[in-house]
Automatic annotation (TrEMBL):
This is Competence protein ComF. Residues 170-256 form the Phosphoribosyltransferase domain. Gene3D superfamilies: 3.40.50.2020. Belongs to the ComF/GntX family. CDD domains: PRTases_typeI (cd06223). Transmembrane segments: none annotated. It comes from the Bacteria. PANTHER family: DNA UTILIZATION PROTEIN YHGH.
């Protein structure tokens, strides 16, 4: 009898039992040793305490349905039969993407979570962002995407950081929405300068032709996930690449949006 044909039936239940014990142990440790709330510092068994979790995600903001830029009531504009409001810039020069859902403005205290996720590998922040993005989606009239992808990092940045913070949001969000997620469907083929250091026009030039699509997206609705949206130039460039590859619709799911470009 070949060695590789021998079955050891006791391994599977033992392994499953060990994993169950490990999971239970982790839950017990979490209960016995609560951590601090990431925003207020109070004791909390979750990333945020109940008070902060209830307070900071419910920002009463009117936003452009296309780019999620905060709007004043006087700036509301609609187009024909579209009941959604849009900013003047998106009506006059529509970006390649169709919709953007954002949780809140990029400002204190929630900007702390984005920084912790992006630079300190606090991946629990990604789960929190995903949970609230899913709730925001459920309250919207947007159709579910066919697939969810993270904003990709260049190979150089991914090696330096060790993880993609957008994937830390995209993966749990896709699970909650019950749609597939692909970490590598979009590749960043050009290493670009950090967008935060550039003006609006330079940002557009910086990300031109920066992406490539590795799967068939013809006729699909693609959901793109990112942690922070500033000018929207990077998301616009990615959406343009997807549309050129045949995508029918591109919707952005971003954790935080800067109040002004």
């Amino acid at each position: 009898m070949k060695a590789d044909s021998i079955r050891l039936p006791f391994r599977t239940p033992v392994t499953a039992r060990a994993r169950g014990f490990a999971s239970a142990a982790k839950r017990l440790v979490a209960c016995a040793l609560p951590s601090q709330c990431a925003l207020c510092g109070n004791l909390s068994q979750a990333l945020l305490c109940d008070g902060c979790d209830a307070q900071y995600w419910n920002e009463p903001r009117l936003r452009c349905a296309t780019c999620a830029l905060p709007l004043a009531a006087s700036a509301m504009r609609r187009e024909r039969e579209d009941l959604r409001v849009h900013c003047a810039a998106c009506l006059e020069a529509p970006p390649a993407f169709n919709d953007t859902l954002a949780l809140a403005d990029y400002r204190a205290p929630l900007d702390t979570l984005a920084v912790e996720l992006k630079f300190r590998a606090r991946l629990a922040a990604g789960e929190a962002f995903a949970r609230h993005l899913h709730a925001r989606f459920e309250d919207s009239d947007l159709p579910a995407p066919d697939v969810i992808v993270p904003m990709p990092l260049s190979r150089e940045r991914l090696i330096a950081r060790g993880y993609n913070q957008a994937w830390a949001i995209a993966r749990p969000l896709a699970r909650m929405m019950r749609v597939p997620a692909h970490a590598s469907m979009i590749a960043r083929v050009r290493h670009t300068s950090a967008q935060s250091r550039l003006d609006r026009e330079t940002r557009r030039r910086n990300v031109a032709s920066a992406f490539a699509v590795s799967r068939d997206v013809r006729g699909t609705h693609v959901g793109v996930v990112d942690d922070v949206m500033t000018s929207g130039a990077t998301l616009d460039a990615l959406a343009r690449t997807l549309k050129l590859a045949g995508a029918r619709r591109v919707s952005n799911f971003v954790a935080l949006r800067t109040p002004k470009d």
